């Protein structure tokens, strides 16, 4: 009897823990959606605030190096870019790229796409040297696995 109660208790803890994680993920999704909505309606400061909250929730829920966190970093960087805060946007874009490089295979076509995107950002802020480096890295990835882009 005591063993059954212990098993039931442990099972209940596991279920409650899983429910908590699911609630955290849902909160992260809602915050990201709200930030995007605010951005699309031109409410940039609200988007930035919600984007920061989404990033914090993502880091707490998934860990600081999770691919979902890279998505939150990228979104927040875009909101900051829209208001001309290029310095912070660059830091966030670079951190997102570092997470992608760590979490994806080295020849993943998404890395090449993101590097080209980031190169466009560097062109926009007048750093053509960094833009060219990123484009060269993206091209190298495409040469390794060119068929990935055709799927």
Helix fraction by DSSP (H/I, runs of at least 4): over 70%
Indicate the structural class.
mainly alpha
End-to-end distance, in Å?
57 Å
Annotation, overall tally of beta strands: 0
Q: Which residues form runs of ≥5 with pLDDT under 50?
A: none
Order of helical and strand elements: HHHHHH
Percent strand: under 5%
CATH architecture of the largest domain: Alpha Horseshoe
Output the CATH class name of the largest domain.
Mainly Alpha
Shape: flat
Mean pLDDT over all positions: 87
Number of H- or I-type helical stretches: 6
Largest sheet: none
CATH topology of the largest domain: Serine Threonine Protein Phosphatase 5, Tetratricopeptide repeat
Produce a short descriptive summary:
The chain has helices at residues 2-40, 44-62, 67-82, 86-103, 109-124, 128-144.
Defining key terms:
single chain; 151 residues; mainly alpha; Serine Threonine Protein Phosphatase 5, Tetratricopeptide repeat; 2 domains; 6 helices; 0% strand; flat
């Amino acid at each position: 009897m005591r063993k059954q109660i212990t098993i039931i208790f442990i099972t209940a803890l596991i279920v409650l823990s899983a429910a908590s994680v699911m609630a955290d993920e849902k909160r992260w999704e809602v915050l990201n959606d709200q930030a995007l909505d605010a951005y699309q309606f031109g409410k940039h400061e609200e988007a930035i605030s919600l984007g920061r909250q989404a990033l914090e929730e993502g880091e707490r829920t998934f860990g600081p190096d999770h691919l979902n966190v890279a998505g939150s970093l990228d979104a927040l960087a875009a909101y900051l870019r829209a208001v001309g805060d290029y310095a912070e946007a660059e830091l966030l874009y670079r951190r997102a790229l570092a997470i992608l490089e760590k979490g994806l295979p080295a020849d993943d076509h998404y890395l090449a796409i993101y590097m080209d995107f980031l190169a466009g950002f560097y062109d926009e802020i007048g750093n053509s040297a960094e833009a060219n480096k990123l484009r060269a890295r993206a091209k190298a990835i495409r040469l390794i696995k060119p068929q990935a882009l055709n799927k």
